[in-house]
DNA sequence: ATGGTAGCACGGCTA
């Protein structure tokens, strides 16, 4: 089964590029981020004409996630547990019924967190975007812990907005104080990994320049000024089922691309 | 310190 995460940066603008990629790559399960659409305005025909089941969790203007699957989906849930007041559409889950195993697929769009607002003691300002990011990551950690405790095989994949290590950025120095890379952000990501999850890409390659995002600005793609922020994290069961993992970098050089590219995992489920 | 680009939706925020 080919499982993919792709931050498409706006479903209404991405139609042609997305359909070209869908027809060539033919993912079995696709989780999308930044659909930037309400559910009713999502052009479902892109997927339904190709035989996909589509589940969306949208909001107006920003954010929004979706799951498309050729395999049956059940028990779809929307929203990350832990804060009933969180109105941002950034998380959904569905169970994919594979021929051999069921897999809980958790699609996520982790908050960017910029600008970083700190008080005089250096603590994140309550109500600020950086505090929201860290709180969201703690909720994600708790969700992973709950799935592990239930022994539910799962994969958490999406746009994490986290650069895990220096080798995951072309210019790490430039990101030192950024919410995507500053130490507390990386520590929060590590604490999720340290539950026993596997970074699928790093389990299969140590290749340098394994980037998934290049800014539209300042010719970042032409200069290969990229960062690795889209990740596939596997629970121990899922890590055993991982066959291969890669990044479809060429998509970034095609016409009217997203600023992210797909990251995929071949899973023996 | 700013600007550089893109998306949604049509003004300004988000990234």
- How many helices? The count is 6
Strand content: 25-35%
Intertermini distance: 7 Å
- The SSE order reads EHEHEEEEEHEHEHEEEHEE
Helix percent reads 10-25%
Strand element count: 14
Describe this structure in a few short sentences.
The protein has helices spanning 11-25, 45-48, 129-149, 183-193, 200-204, 236-241, and strands spanning 2-7, 29-33, 53-57, 65-69, 73-78, 91-97, 102-109, 154-159, 198-199, 213-214, 226-227, 230-234, 242-247, 263-267. It is α+β, with helices and mostly antiparallel strands and 269 residues long. The chain has one domain: Endonuclease/exonuclease/phosphatase (Deoxyribonuclease I, Chain A, 4-Layer Sandwich).
Main features:
6 helices; single chain; DNA-binding; six-stranded mixed beta sheet; 269 residues; Deoxyribonuclease I, Chain A; alpha+beta
Structure commentary:
The chain is globular, with a radius of gyration of 17 Å. It has helices at 11-25, 45-48, 129-149, 183-193, 200-204, 236-241; strands at residues 2-7, 29-33, 53-57, 65-69, 73-78, 91-97, 102-109, 154-159, 198-199, 213-214, 226-227, 230-234, 242-247, 263-267. The mean pLDDT is 98. The chain contains 6 helices and 14 strands. The chain is α+β, with helices and mostly antiparallel strands. It has a single domain (2-267), classed as Endonuclease/exonuclease/phosphatase (Deoxyribonuclease I, Chain A). It binds one DNA strand of 15 nucleotides through helix 1.
